[in-house]
Design brief:
6 helices, alpha+beta, four-stranded antiparallel sheet, Creatine Amidinohydrolase, globular
Length: about 325
């Protein structure tokens, strides 16, 4: 697949997607406490998707009604820059045609899970919940209940405006051991190190080399079986973004590139085993693992972390 650079308008819309993904992930992270099941977290994420999808639908209907009345207010004209099909509606447009336009805009712009039914076997949830030795792709279950001292990686992605936002965070549950706390904090720092290198002219290999060096300096290994990726109209686009490599190698970062960077760091060896459900990936030596991820736009002014609410263009 050829690398798909995004326009500034696409990045603006992908930022909106990123803010919604970040909000739902934040709610799950706050809810992740002893006694809560991973099934509960998936139900919460589904409710969040539904809430934001209904909010988008309401905006589209409001915008359509304003154009159908004629002389829409400036606020609706601005909104129609996103929901562009609505601009074809006039007081003379038939109800059937208005309905067709509205349905088309909802289908294009609504909030949908990026994970549900993905790949084969179809992934059965909207979030991945990966506890302790599970690296990624843990499937939420009713009988999987969080306990004091656990660490859980919560990985979540959506499409909104037809553009993907992919983000993950590892949460420490209750009284976590110093060793596990250090692993989680180091993995988060690995992501920050990579984000700082997401600048025009740097290379993909610079990111991976920096992540690998930081992790190994602190006594950890990085997972090599799974990597980050470009993201946009599809969840997984080129280029691949490994968490290992050689500085100065790989594709150059260009303005308009949007990538999901996601360090996966193990306390033990980097080897991976996939369980019988064909999704859950665990450390082969059953050592602890942590995972963080953000969706980042490469701009001339610097990185814009689309799934970090406090980030602005050039200020990660």
């Amino acid at each position: 697949m050829r690398i798909q650079l995004k326009s500034r308008e696409e990045i603006r819309l992908q930022r909106e997607s990123g803010l919604v993904a970040a909000s739902i992930l934040d709610d799950m992270c706050k809810a992740a406490k002893p006694g809560v099941s991973t099934w509960d977290l998936d139900r919460m994420a589904r409710a969040g998707i539904d809430k934001h999808a209904k909010a988008i639908e309401a905006k589209i209907y409001e915008c359509a009604r304003a154009f159908a009345r004629g002389k829409p207010p400036l606020e609706m004209v601005e909104l129609a820059k996103t929901f562009s099909g609505v601009r074809d509606i006039t007081p003379e447009t038939t109800t059937a045609k208005v309905d067709d336009i509205v349905r088309g805009e909802i289908d294009q712009h609504t909030v949908k899970s990026a994970f549900l039914n993905y790949a084969y076997p179809p992934y059965p949830a909207v979030v991945c919940t990966s506890i302790n030795e599970v690296i990624v792709h843990g499937i939420p279950r009713k009988n999987e209940v969080l306990r004091d001292g656990d660490v859980i990686g919560i990985d979540f992605g959506i499409f909104m405006h037809g553009l993907c936002a992919d983000t993950a965070r590892t949460v420490m549950i209750g009284n976590v051991s110093p060793a596990n706390r250090k692993l989680v904090e180091t993995t988060e720092k690995c992501l920050d190190v990579a984000i700082d290198l997401c600048r025009v002219g740097n290379r993909i290999g610079d990111l991976g080399a920096a992540v690998e060096k930081y992790a190994k300096t602190h006594g950890y290994s990085v997972v090599t079986k799974f990597v980050g990726h470009g993201t946009g109209r599809q969840m997984h686009e080129d280029p691949q973004v490994p968490n290992f490599g050689t500085a100065g190698s790989g594709k150059r970062l260009k303005s308009g590139l949007v990538i999901a960077v996601e360090p996966m760091v193990n306390a033990g060896a980097p080897d991976v085993e996939t369980l019988d459900d064909q999704w859950t990936a665990v450390t082969k030596d059953r050592s602890m693992s942590a995972h963080f991820e953000h969706t980042i736009a490469i701009l001339d002014e610097g990185p814009w972390v689309l799934t970090r609410p406090t980030s602005t263009p050039g200020n990660p």
